[in-house]
Amino acid sequence: MLISIVERSLFRDKDGGTKVVKHRFLGFLIWQALQSTAVFFLSKTLLLFLFTRTPFKPSFLSIFAFIVFHFSLLIFSTSLFIISSPRPQRAASPLELLLGTARLILVPISNSQPLLSPDFRLRARASISFVLFVAVSAVSASLSVITLCLSCNAFDQLKQRRLVIGKLGFWGLQIGLLYGVHYVYNKRWVLQFPIIQRPPFFSFKMGLPVAVGKALKLSATGYVLSAILAFVLPYEFKGQLPVGSFITEQILFYIGSFVVILGWELCHHLHQVLHTKRSVFAPPKGSAAAETNPSEPLLAALEESTPKSLLQYLAYLDLCMVCEGNVDPWRRAAFFEESGETYKRVISVCLTPVEQFTRNVSEVLESSPVDNSLQLSHQLRSPNEQLADSKVYESFDDFQLLAWCARIVASLTVHSHKEDRFGVAQLSGSNAAVISTLLSSLLAVETLMGKKTNLQSSNTLMDPAGIKWATLNPGRRDSTAGMAGRRKGAPFYAKAYSMADILKTSIYGIVSAFYDEMSHSAKAGLLEKDWIISSKPLYGTRELLSQKLRLFLDFQAS
């Protein structure tokens, strides 16, 4: 409710776009405080009942523990928000950080050229944020374990209060370090946008079993790790406990670590739910702004926000839902206004990421041609080949954004067939640009996956669909199989396969909507003229794009 009220006031001042992210963060902190309060009181009541058989009673010590517990989760939630991103981020290695620091210290500052490149600054910032997150996790876990377990009387045999606090803090430190490293290494900080947008309550409820299972696994792993590290502790720090008290101590520590990790998992899940929820970038329906220019807030968020930021991702998500669904048809109808400027701006902001992705893949394919790669052994890989794979892997970092853009331009093109009263899509040349860009991107991705298409030559075979497939030299057939195997084992292969499927689905949607028009153009020999751009495509040739489009027109593309 709070987030919805804030989003309604989004367009009251100029800096409304930034307020979306800020208020989502504040809403996240509020809901996190509520759930952490419930976790604290339930766990505290359970621990006191199990180990002391006494009910939970408010006291100065319990109130202080409650404040410290909330503070520990507050710093964890803040660090979680800081490192979160809608796309993976590359971190700088320790050696690169050391060299960059030495360069800042030793090299004199020059106004003409910066000492550190913008890319290195981003990677260094990501590395520092990851290290700080792990450190904050360790501190937060230590404070949380101490506040949860200290008031239980399982440590009566240990008369020294400082030794008890140190022991609990050390246990919590291990749990925090384990969780922080696990969280960063598995890239759980990357926001995963759901396929189906549900109300936040139902989305949060669906993730509760996963959070509990993850907490059980990580707390068990942390317990085993602490048991191993216990052998290296000094004898004085281990303490001297009877067998019964030692077992009670271990049970208490496991329950405490489970509660801490459960609170973090719930925090992580709540953060994912609230920050991937759709935000409506439009003025209220019926207002003056909705009647005059309802698309301007959305276009402003797409064009003026920081590239590849959370705000821009939310704007693309809103645009995708407007184009594909029928919830806000009045907003989609506003794209087809008479001047055609709005439609061209929408198509431009969506085609730009796809075009940049195609260029990156094309550069990699051209810089490491097949003939050179075939000379390599299956096991040995040159530095150039490793660099090429790294560039391709970075190109797929924006997979979610690329998928939205392909679906948006395809949906708008399909809806323009019936909703474009002024013909702005066809007259502006946007339809040909969309088809050409999607086809070029599909050809580049398929080539990256090992599927090579060529025009007719002396060494080609024609398949039943009419595409010329290059035949392989018998002497190079084994090498080609080895190269394809390396591609399939690459980290980006799964995303490339998904990207190809999205591009095919988008093209088939356009072909189905304009099937009659394309069939008539094909019979008249004007298919290439009407649906392929006149300039050089981003990848391939106009003839190859035309052949690929005919394959889709015959519904034989696979």
Automatic annotation (TrEMBL):
Topology relative to the membrane: Multi-pass membrane protein
Cellular component, GO annotation: nuclear membrane; nuclear pore transmembrane ring
Protein name (record): Nucleoporin protein Ndc1-Nup
Classification via InterPro entries: Nucleoporin_prot_Ndc1/Nup
Segments passing through the bilayer: 28-51, 63-83, 128-152, 164-185, 215-234, 246-264
Similarity-based family: Belongs to the NDC1 family.
GO biological processes: mRNA transport; nuclear pore organization; protein transport
Organism of origin: Solanum bulbocastanum (Wild potato)
Molecular functions per Gene Ontology: protein-macromolecule adaptor activity
